[in-house]
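S.,

Sequence below, as promised.
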Amino acid sequence: MEEHIEFNPSYTLLTLACNGGEAVNVEPGAMVSLSGMTMQTGMSGGGGFGGFLKSMAKSALGGESFFLNTYTAGPQGGWISLAPGVSGDIQHTDIQPGRQIFIQSGSYLASTTNVKTDTKFQGAKGFFSGESLFFIRGFTEDGQSGRIWFNSFGAMKEIPIQPGQVITVDTGHVVAFDDTVSYEIGKVGGMKSFMFGGEGVVMHFSGQGRVWIQTRNLASLASNLIPFWPQRG
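The prediction came back faster than expected:
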């Protein structure tokens, strides 16, 4: 499978060229155009009752669709172009066997068919993060590596974290992170800065791995638009 990215980082379009029989899982609504591909729709959590429960959890708690579309190339091969629902960037990472990646709600775009996804509860930290209480967790179970694509609002940047280093990110700008890093919820500065400095809750990342951040914040955009909404009466 070959990938080609255009128009990044603001209005990114991802095109995947597949050999005959190759398939990719895609978040519903992300398909822009295709050729030589067939589509099959199933539950995003997999089949059976267990898959139904996982699909319900991803939809209700993780901000993702209950369903997942699988596109498969015909004998002569095919291609599919994908784009997220918001203007922004698309990046990928390869998930090695035994490893995981955590993605913010609403940022999963597509993955190879051996990648599984479910929801990961943040625990008590989620109540103070200002964001969703759940992340989307991507992993593989077949002993093979898999690839997952995720999107941002605005441009995206990958930040490497080295042992002994702490990287602080506003919660609204976190897109994804490796399972080899950990985080603590905190604030920038003292209580006065927290209340009046314009910065809210942040995540302090440490360990060794990668964190992906986005240059824009959907919550901030929404709050800036609220004063312009029509008022009843």
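Residues 57-63, 192-198 have pLDDT under 50 and may be disordered.

Coffee later?
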